[in-house]
Structure formats: structure tokens, C-alpha cells
Amino acid sequence: MTDYQNIIDAIYAGCRESRDRGVVASYIPELAKVSSSKFGIHLVDLNKNNFCAGHSKDAFSIQSISKVLSLALAFSLVDNALLKRVDVEPSGDPFNHLSLLEFENGIPRNPLINAGALVVADILVSELDDPKKDFLHFVRDLANDRTIDFDEKVAKSEKRTGFKNYAAANLLKSYGNLTNDVETVLDFYFHQCSIAMDCVQLTKAFFPFMNGGKCQRNRTYLTLSQVKRINAIMLTCGFYDEAGEFAFEIGLPGKSGVGGGIVAVLPRKYCVAVWSPGLNAKGNSKLGMEALEKLTTATHQSIF
Ligand code: DON
């Protein structure tokens, strides 16, 4: 059996010493307050054995990691109808770029870039009775943890500086690919991104993506086909213009957030979450990526 704890301890020891930790995101002012010295990692295997190191129980802003959870909920509600409004091709562009959106007449390349996530948010605003409350309930339910919550300060902070997302939402609206009004969709989106979770909670919430759609309590959230499709989208689009590099170095479906978190899954084996707030030039956690590369290399396990 793979000695995950030993491998994770070695990864933590290496990352703790690292001087080059990347740069903490500051375009959402509230995120700039987080110390780049933080590092946490948590892995849960298929049999629910847990392995962790560092600040694995410190909550952080999950940001774009939430896009996978909103996609999962939207998929479970409207299934393939979603694909009429958002494509599933990698963009090769940074997460907030808008040029392709205009070229492609308001159909975002994929659900994990900001424009695609806004379309998914629009679907949830239309489908849910009380969108923010119901989405939070879904995330709490997945992770079986009532303490998970929005961070209102982060949501407000992003609203104040979210000019690019306002531009994306307005562009989508101008192409008829946003049903609800811009303010309502952005309010939902800023809140979903503001959710604070720690590495342990994230591995619980992402357990269904490695376990054929079933959570740790064996409740089914997604069909096998939906899990296959969402994992494929994570692999090809989860790291934006660094998705190729992530597949090349790490070889797992995963998703990053500008809060410095990354979640990745090895189907039927494990789910892992890592957090280090300093980002690389592409906006993904610098040490987080290095840690996951060490994990898949040391374990000789990846989807390839
Ligand atoms: O929309 C934004 O810019 C942020 N709420 C989320 C961006 C993000 O996390 C990109 N991922 N690495």
C-alpha cells in the first residue's frame, strides 16, 4: 500500500523551506491580507483514510474552485441543456480574458473560465428558489459540514474591484446568454467564490468526483457520465492557460483558485487538496502545483 503520510510529510518539509513562494493575489484586496507562509495539504483515499500536513485546517477563500461545484449542481439540474450555452474546449487564455467571448458570439469556451462560470451562475439563479442559500446548502451537504459559509468581506471586496467580471457579464448579456440581470448574477458569483473552506472540507466536497458521483456518506450527487465529463473539463480547462502544464507535470483532473487552493482527484484512488496562497505568473498556487507534482511522481500514480 502507498505510504501517503510519509510522502505528504516529505512534501510538507520541502515546501516549508521554500523561499520562492509566488505572489499572493491582490486584485481582490481582501485576499492580499493572507500570509504567503501558509501551506496545508490533505489527502483522503477511497476507503476514507485521511492524511494531512501543515495548515490543512485553516479556512481560505476557495475562489474558482467553487466553479466545479456550481457546474456540478447546474449539471445535476439541467444536464446537457447546459452545453447549449457554454462550450467544453480549453481556452488557452487567462481565466478572465474576454477576446474569445466576443469572437465566439457570447458562448464561453468552457465553464471554468470566468465567463463560463457566469453562465453557470445564471442557470443556478434561474433554477434555484433561493440561489445563494441553496448553493451553500449544496456545498455544506457535499462536505457534510454545516460550518461552511460565505465570507461577506471577500464577496464585497471582489464586487468593489470586479470590473472585468462586470464586463464579462455585460458582454454575455449583450449576446443574449444571460437570462437574469447582471447585478443578480454577479452577486451570486462573487458569493460562490467567497466561500471559505479548509483542505479537509475540500477533499470531502470533491469526494464524489473521485468516487463515481457518491459522497463519503454514499449518497449519489452525480451520474457516472456527469462525473466523467466534469473530470474531463477539470483536466483540460481547470488551470486555464496552464492546463497543459498541469496535465504534463501532475496528470490529474483538478481545479485551482486565486486564494491559492488546488483540489485534484485520482478517480477511485484519492482526492487531494493543497493550499499555499502565493501564485505563479498564471494565477495558480506556486507551491501547490509543485507539491502535487511531487505527490504524483513519488506515488507513481496519475491518470496516465
Ligand atoms: O472572478 C474572479 O476573478 C475570482 N473570483 C476567481 C478567479 C480565480 O480563482 C482564478 N483561478 N485561479
Can you tag this structure with a few keywords?
alpha+beta, 304 residues, Beta-lactamase, 13 helices, globular, binds 6-diazenyl-5-OXO-L-norleucine, 46% helix
* Fraction of residues in β-strands: 5-15%
Morphology: globular
Give the tally of structural domains. 2
- Give, in spatial order, the strands making up the sheet with the most strands: 3-2-8-7-6
Helicity range:
40-55%
At the first level of CATH, the class of the largest domain is Alpha Beta
* CATH topology call of the largest domain: Beta-lactamase
| Main beta sheet strand tally, sense and closure | 5 strands, antiparallel
Distance between the termini: 19 Å
CATH homologous superfamily name of the largest domain? DD-peptidase/beta-lactamase superfamily
- Report the radius of gyration as a whole number of Å: 18 Å
**Sequence of secondary-structure elements:** HEEEEHHHHHHHEHHHHEEEEH
Residue stretches low in confidence (pLDDT < 50, at least 5 long) are none
Task: Tell me, rounded to a whole number, the average pLDDT.
Answer: 97
Count the helices. How many? 13
Structural class: alpha+beta
- Structure ligands: 6-diazenyl-5-OXO-L-norleucine
Number of strands: 9
- CATH architectural grouping of the largest domain: 3-Layer(aba) Sandwich
